[in-house]
Structures are given as structure tokens and as C-alpha cells.
Amino acid sequence: AKNKLAGKLDMVEPDGNFILGRILPAQKSSHIVSELADKGILIRDGNELSDVGKDWIRFSIRSKKDNTFLLKGLDEVLTEHP
Question: pLDDT tens digits for 8-65?
């Protein structure tokens, strides 16, 4: 799954149930969050988190089905808006 997002999202090794990722090339996280929300996927905008900024997103680890849906949505949105 991580390979599918290679060159689009640089993920930090998870600590707990959350994954922090930097959008590559630097895009505005607010746009990615909005696009994913339109697909029914809710993630956190880096602007809402301390110590990160507009090119970061955070999402939680869930069921295999939910994670597959999230990764597909991320791939679509990051491909549409390189």
C-alpha cells in the first residue's frame, strides 16, 4: 500500500493508531482533506495539528476494509492533483 503512494505521500512510522504523512510534492492539506471528505473519508488537516503545517495530514489505522478505502481515496486525490 505504501508503494502505491510512493512519490505522493511520505508517511512517518506510526506511533499508536495514527499515521502522519507529508504530501509530496507539497500540496495544501486543506484541499486534500476536502477532496477526501467529498468521498466520505475523514482525515485531519495538518493545519489543525501542532508542529506540522499545510503539507501534512493525519489519519487513523482502522479495519482492513477501511484502510483499503482510505488508500484508494488518497491515491485518487493525490493523482488528480499532482
Answer: 889 888 878 888 899 988 678 988 999 999 999 999 998 888 778 888 999 998 999 9
pTM of the model: 0.82
- Is the distance from CB of 18 to CB of 61 less than 8 angstroms? yes
- Whose grid coordinates read 488528480? 80
Ranges of H-type helices in 1-82: 29-38, 64-80
Residue with grid cell 484502510, as numbered in its chain: 67
| Cα-based distances in Å from 69 to 1, 47, 62, 74 | 11, 24, 10, 9
**The C-alpha cell that represents 57 in the structure block:** 495530514
- Amino acid at position 81, single letter: H
